[in-house]
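The records we work with from here on pair a chain with its fold. These numbers are not coordinates but entries in a learned vocabulary of local backbone shapes. To see the layout at work, look at the sequence and tokens printed below.

. . .
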Amino acid sequence: MTATPVSVAGMAHQVQVTFDAADPARLAEFWALALGYVAQPPPAGFDSWERFAERIGVPPERAGDMAAVIDPDGAGPRIFIQRVPEGKTAKNRVHLDIQLTGGDRGAHAWRRVTEHVDTLVAAGARRLWETDEPTGRAIVLADPEGNEFCVT
């Protein structure tokens, strides 16, 4: 039996990347820095996410359970971060690659990578290892909650 792909008028679908977290606000701040993103503004008609949460009936103690950052140019996916009770326990099966070099293997491009890595480490990331494979060179890090990602 073969699955038939379902398409909406041949259009691609939007993608959101979701992270589980103990501290959504802190992780959102980290990923905004890592990706050059900004905090997602509250919906139209609301001056804050807290007021929006109150309006839709979210209990005050749960108002900080979510955060989101977005690409200010609208090109990249939204990053949504939700509080979960359990911590990270295993290696990611999916990870993000922050691409700064555009495939350029020169010293100037690599300097951009190492400078960004230094910034992210100062913001709470942990440097795990560096790799130089035929497919490309990368530094592997873990965000403040242990999610692995690469800077290339």
